[in-house]
Design brief:
alpha/beta; Rossmann fold; 17% strand; single chain; 13 strands; 378 residues; 14 helices; six-stranded parallel sheet
């Protein structure tokens, strides 16, 4: 099958969506399919086309004017017309795709992946309406998380688990260090709960008398204020900034203070106990309503996180049991399994569209549709 994955950014950009698309592409390649990634070039100097790990990468000049981008898509529309499947990542990129190529590419082969949603609570009505509209523009929809359906009120065709790279069974395991440390990986923004983790360290030291150190990998708008807070309270918190492979550092700490889906699973695969903070009901569902949720500890305040961590330090046997259960769950996650779920959906939808088209041709209705220039509804 010839597949095009259309995404806002791709390698060498670093992020959850970029990593998801890369690993899905590699899994599809291993299963014998042809994969092209079309992504925006965010700065000058990035090649228009290159091949990396067998994946053909095409970049449109996203840093230039809309007219320049439009001309690029006109010249490269063959990438999409030749594909059997065009998979678009997230609603805003689907809207962009429709503006650039909507009249040219049949909707029967366009699919949408919602990797998440803006962590705004309550969810604006405009976001819900956009999600409903976008679902009608495509042949099929995948959600990267069960919480999305609830909060956007749109039902996906599939909601597959993410894979893991490397697989849990292939990761070198390191002995758990002393239970006096944690590692945070993620953005330094209000919706991630980073402030709660800092408060938890303060509570562990002052209320529970536990010496405790936190390593923070990430950046964001709260970095300066958090650093000032840490210095004022004289807490053992180290800010390392962004790091492309921060997940390998989970081995250095006993606890993983993370709330991102991919980071949660990577910590579990390295046998580290996950404590996930949530700041509102939407984020609660994000960490408490997924397949990995039974194997982590979740809390809505720094005080609650500190209480949980203190209990797990005091009861190592309980901590070890949960860590082992989480590792067993992580061992079930493989990108080939994720890729097969997509292939099954794509093949089913394409076959259904072909049957409808065949019926239209047999009835003679396809001729009138072709003359009007309209696409057959999906």
């Amino acid at each position: 099958m010839k597949i095009v994955l259309f995404v806002h950014r791709y390698w060498p950009s670093v992020g959850g969506v970029e990593k998801y698309v890369e690993q899905l592409s590699l899994a599809l390649l291993r299963l014998g399919h042809s994969v092209r990634v079309v992504a925006g070039a965010t700065q000058e100097g990035q090649p228009d086309r290159e091949v990396r790990d067998g994946i053909e990468i095409y970049r449109f000049p996203a840093y230039r004017s809309p007219m320049r981008c439009r001309w690029w898509f006109v010249r490269h529309q063959h990438l999409f017309s030749e594909a059997e499947v065009v998979s678009v990542s997230n609603t805003h990129m689907l809207e962009y795709f429709c503006r650039m190529l909507g009249p040219v590419v049949s909707r029967r082969k366009v699919f949408l992946i919602r990797h998440g949603m803006a962590c705004i609570h309550p969810v604006p009505e405009s976001h819900i309406n956009r999600a409903r509209r976008s679902s009608k523009w495509v042949a099929g929809v995948a959600h990267d998380g069960a919480f999305i359906e609830k909060w956007l009120d749109v039902q996906p065709d599939i909601c597959p688990d993410q894979g893991l790279t490397p697989a849990a069974q292939d990761i070198e395991q390191h002995a758990e260090p002393e239970p006096t440390s944690a590692l945070y990986v993620g953005r330094l923004e209000p919706d991630t709960g980073i402030g709660m983790y800092i408060e938890a360290v303060h509570q562990l030291v002052t209320k529970y008398g536990r010496p405790f150190h936190l390593d923070v990998y990430g950046d964001g708008s709260l970095r300066e204020s958090l650093q000032a807070q840490v210095e004022e309270s004289d807490l053992a918190v180290t800010f390392h900034g962004r790091c492309a492979d921060a997940q390998v550092r989970f081995k250095d700490a006993c606890f993983a203070f993370v709330d991102g889906r991919m980071a949660i699973q990577e910590a579990m695969a390295r046998r580290r106990l996950v404590c996930a903070a949530y700041v509102d009901p939407l984020k609660r569902d994000y960490v408490c309503g997924e397949s990995f949720s039974p194997y982590l500890l979740a809390a809505d305040s720094g005080e609650a996180i500190a209480r949980i961590v203190d209990d797990m330090i005091s009861h190592p046997e309980k901590r070890l049991k949960l860590v082992n259960q989480a590792f067993e769950y992580a061992g079930t996650l493989h990108w080939e399994t994720t890729a097969r779920a997509y292939l099954k959906m794509w093949e089913s939808k394409l076959a259904s569209a072909a049957q409808r088209t065949g019926w239209l041709r047999a009835s003679g209705l396809s001729v009138s549709l072709e003359h009007t220039g309209k696409h057959v509804p999906v």
